[in-house]
Amino acid sequence: MAKLLSQETLDLTSLIRPGDTVLWGQANAEPLPLTKALMEQRHDLGRIRVLLGIPNSDSCRPEHADKIDFLSYCGSGANRQLAKAGALDILPCHYSEFPQMIRSGLLRVDVLLLQLAPADEQGRYSLGLAHEYLLPALETARVVIAEVNQACPWTYGERYLYEDDLDAILHSDRAPLESPLLQPGPMERSIAERVAGLIEDGSTLQLGIGAIPEAVVQALEGHRELGIHSGTIGDGVADLIRQGVITNSRKTLDTGLTVAGVLMGSRALHRFAHRNPQIHMRSTDYTHNPEILAGQDRLVAINSAIEVDLSGQINAETAAGNYVGALGGAVDFLRGARRSHGGLPIIALPSTAGPNSRIVARLSGPVSTPRCDAGLIVSEYGIADLRGLSLRQRVRRMIDIAHPQFREQLERDAASL
């Protein structure tokens, strides 16, 4: 039987050992009372390691690195402060690799912290806001500690938990974290209109994180019978389901279901997903599976980037020398969309960032996506479909979608490549 914890007696030192690696759900799925207690009790635990996803809180701060080694696949949110302070180590791997890395022990998880929705009449606890890489961690963790939150949405999914699966339970009734609602500007809306014009009715969408994918969702209100198979979904997807734009009725796989690994949105999204049989949460094993993606006809992968070079190489990780993004799942979905019958692998980005061009002769950071995986690059100035093009042909197409003030310089730079 699971040990019952309380806020007054929330002692993690009997459950976590020195040298342990601790993992929890990212974004809104973070079990905040447990993670805050972990940080507060770090001096009593001995040195440990924490595997971080995208944070929507500041529970992990640079000063906590005195006793904790932080590792993450991304530099988003509060992770940027950790990275700037030299307190964050980066794990550069495709998102699809996480499950096998965890199962094999290459990425060891000793302690798993979860936020769960209360058990239903059948005694099933729902993982609520995230499935993703939590499922393989459940298979390998020595200790599973759950915050059972009365306010967490109960969602349908690939797996449910029972009390026997848990070593300790903390009951709470706090409002789960919320993801900030992004408000796309004129630039993002212009790009989104171009992307939306490429999408046929009946397509299935994968949506990356950021203002441009959110703007694309808003630009799809005139479409019909769209589907969703995505690592994350937000409020915009819920709005399109309510409007009847997203029906999932023409999906090749999972017909009638919106499939996602993580819910990243507001309280309105949480309410919409609660006991909603149209939304099905799945693990990374499924959402990022190359065979599943290739088998989904008309899969449109929509992601963004920091910069793209003239040959189609994409940097989605660093800007101005700072780690701010991720390798993540973009390559998984771009490759899946390329193999999908009628699929579209799309990278959309503004042509500039401040005074600098984001279409460049040479990347300033790592190659997150190799040029062999590039598909359609979209800016506010046009669409460069790089599929089937030689390097020389790609240069011309990429210069054409750059900001006009940088095209002459890009022409000169291209001549010396």
Give an overview in words:
With 417 residues, the protein is α/β, with parallel strands linked by helices. The chain folds into two domains: 3-172, Glutaconate Coenzyme A-transferase (3-Layer(aba) Sandwich); 186-415, Acetyl-CoA hydrolase/transferase C-terminal domain (Glutaconate Coenzyme A-transferase), CATH 3.40.1080. The chain contains 14 helices and 24 strands. It has helices spanning 32-40, 42-45, 79-84, 98-104, 134-140, 186-198, 211-218, 235-242, 267-273, 284-287, 290-294, 330-339, 391-400, 404-415; strands at residues 3-5, 21-24, 48-52, 68-72, 88-90, 111-116, 143-149, 156-157, 168-172, 204-207, 227-233, 258-263, 279-281, 299-303, 307-309, 314-315, 318-319, 322-323, 344-348, 352-353, 356-357, 359-360, 376-379, 382-385. Strands 8-13-12-11-10-14-19-23-24 form a nine-stranded mixed beta sheet, with helices on both faces. Helix 6 (186-198) packs across helix 7 (211-218). The longest helix has 13 residues, at 186-198. The chain is globular and about 65 Å long. The N and C termini lie far apart (65 Å). The model has no long low-confidence stretch (mean pLDDT 96).
Topology:
Elements: E1 3-5, E2 21-24, H1 32-40, H2 42-45, E3 48-52, E4 68-72, H3 79-84, E5 88-90, H4 98-104, E6 111-116, H5 134-140, E7 143-149, E8 156-157, E9 168-172, H6 186-198, E10 204-207, H7 211-218, E11 227-233, H8 235-242, E12 258-263, H9 267-273, E13 279-281, H10 284-287, H11 290-294, E14 299-303, E15 307-309, E16 314-315, E17 318-319, E18 322-323, H12 330-339, E19 344-348, E20 352-353, E21 356-357, E22 359-360, E23 376-379, E24 382-385, H13 391-400, H14 404-415
Parallel strand pairs: 1-9, 2-3, 2-6, 3-4, 4-5, 6-7, 7-9, 8-13, 10-11, 10-14, 11-12, 12-13, 14-19, 15-22, 19-23
Antiparallel strand pairs: 15-16, 17-18, 20-21, 23-24
Helix pairs in contact: 4-5, 6-7
